[in-house]
Input
Amino acid sequence: MVKRSRIIAFFLLVVLLGGMMGLTAEKIVKNIKLGLDLQGGFEILYEVKPTKEGEKITKDVLLSTVSALNKRINVLGVSEPRIDVEGNNRIRVQLAGVKDQNKAREILSTEAKLTFRDVHDNVLMDGSDLVEGGAKQTFDDKGKPSVAIQLKDANKFKEVTQKVLSMAPNNVLVIWLDFEEGVDSYAKEVGKEHPKFISAAQVNEVFNQTDVSIVGNFTVEEAKQLADLLNAGALPVELKEIYSTSVGAQFGEQALQETILAGIIGVALIFIFMIVFYRLPGIVAVITLSIYIYLILLIFDWMNGVLTLPGIAALILGVGMAVDANIITYERIKDELKLGKSLMSAYRIGNRGSFGTILDANITTIIAGVVLFAYGTSSVKGFATMLIISILASFITAIYGTRLLLGLLVKSRLFDKKPHYFGVNPKDILDIAKVTDDTDVPTKFERLDFVKRSKLFFAISGALTIIGVVLLLTAKLNLGIDFSSGTRVDLMSKKPLTIEEVKDELNELHLEPKDVVLSGNNNDMAIVRFLGVLDQKEISKLKSHFKEKYGVEPNVSVVSPTVGKELARNAFIAVLIASVGIIIYVTVRFEMYMALAAIIALLHDAFLVVAFFSLTRLEVDLTFIAAVLTIIGYSINDTIVTFDRIRHIMKKRKVKTVDDLKDIVNKALQQTFTRSINTVLTVIFTVIALLIFGSDSIRNFNLALLVGLVCGVYSSLFIASQLWVVWKAKQLKTGTQKRDQLEAEPEV
Output
């Protein structure tokens, strides 16, 4: 009897959820903050150094510096900046949406130490003599912009002006900002058109007052900026840039539009695939995946998270990974239907049997995500955060959302005699009366013998590994500045560029690049790399020059040798920790041989990706490491599903010979083959969409994922389980020999 109330409840629930998401989704999306790679801005890692010998950088000094930097950022009018103390002597500053990056960098890095000196560069007064917050922008008696300051002690200013007056004809009071001892001098600067000092006023009388006006060739904006800097106070330390990256607003806007388009296309392909292949459960999957996307954005909004370009990529990839849980459940239900079980029984057994597999597969990916978060930089942390949230959200929606919605349809009894609605051909269903506990699920791949050709697969992987080693020893990797240090500049133009044109423009700035590579659909983008680290002034000139030339502010990333070595070391540690964590987990949940086989398979996948990048000379950067760790976390999913099926079959059969082992592994691979192909296909849909339609900024990241995913499904089917057979067979033979010896020994 059909229970129409269940059908009505299903549609009411779908309409209710759809209405709620439709009414609130736009507001949630608007609330989510965009990272600097999506709205423009920059990130700088400063090494904090003492200004005087003997001084130590303490926690209080770092906090004081952060406070001073916050005041300066308020001058810029940037909303919600991020300033973090890292380690014992570093501060990371992230400013998204800043309009004038050159000005912002200058304001942040300047120590803002005001000094009053004579023509011989002797200090007469400094910033400590100023009243706190007493500076303001004014106009002098000629109507020119000036800066009015208040001094604490009129008598001291009287003494200073007396001393300068007595030095006639050199009776000049020179005002400096950030005077560098041993480098700057009045004698060097006085003849220049644009001297470093702020002003040099002749003193013709003694002043006994606290109100002083600094007069120079200021614009109103420059005078206001100086007043704000003086009010913000001098930095108690010296800041040295050791890592920085900046993104022009146009780059960020274009990357956002391209990636969202790629995401829509990738997700649409997944939806179509699920409906075509799984029919009714596929429709339920589309509904739960929509809820999953909404849930992720909602959680990200609650967390007050910052969405980065890799973060959007993780969200899109997460949709492909979320389907994994649905496919595992649906394939289990289909297996039970093929064994002649009723729809209700198949639904219950499928849900119960898939829970542990989904849990194991998700936890291994979370391990990789946590390691990424611990050892990654800001953009990689954004990817890791979104990856972890995606996994948790997919688990909730797949386990509880799918069960609720699909359960309503199943329990309605409307589809009891309609297995084709669940993607099962009635011809493939066995007679329940002839099915026993030992009956295998019928599949289309029963003729495939995976174990028989294991030596061939081992030989192929061995040959690829040897080729990869040779490539790495000879060609090595094309390391980006993240690991090799240096400077990278991304240029964008509204017309096609040529390498010669870009080099000519750089020559005008007296800059010699290591290489120039054109990219973009019409060669309208160029990637320029420098061996050395450009300083702040060079970066400022470069940005201004190309913004004026092409109308788009370029992206500039700088990595010092120190940070480059640290990033390389952290990348190695991250891969090592992720591998060890996965070995421990799989050992606890399964057994040691399965854990070792799984880790060799996933390291095999990661290595082949590295070898591919060596062969193609694609640039290796931090997002590449994120891709490798994602592959490590994801490629083991297929392996775990196969091992889970092996364990399930072994519970029903007694293993006495090596042939029994081989038969079990073959049956497990045959039964999980469809699931392995389908899950990798759904993720590949999103990766290919990102490759074709997404931003060039994460193209190498997507290529690494694509190669890794293909290698992952190959190693799951042809490497991991076959390795387990080899080791388990040796253990079985050893155990049999010992048993035979014991049986052969005469009784005493």
Notes: The radius of gyration is 33 Å. The chain has four domains: 41-109+243-247, 114-234, 249-476+564-739, 486-559. The first strand starts at residue 33 and ends at 34.
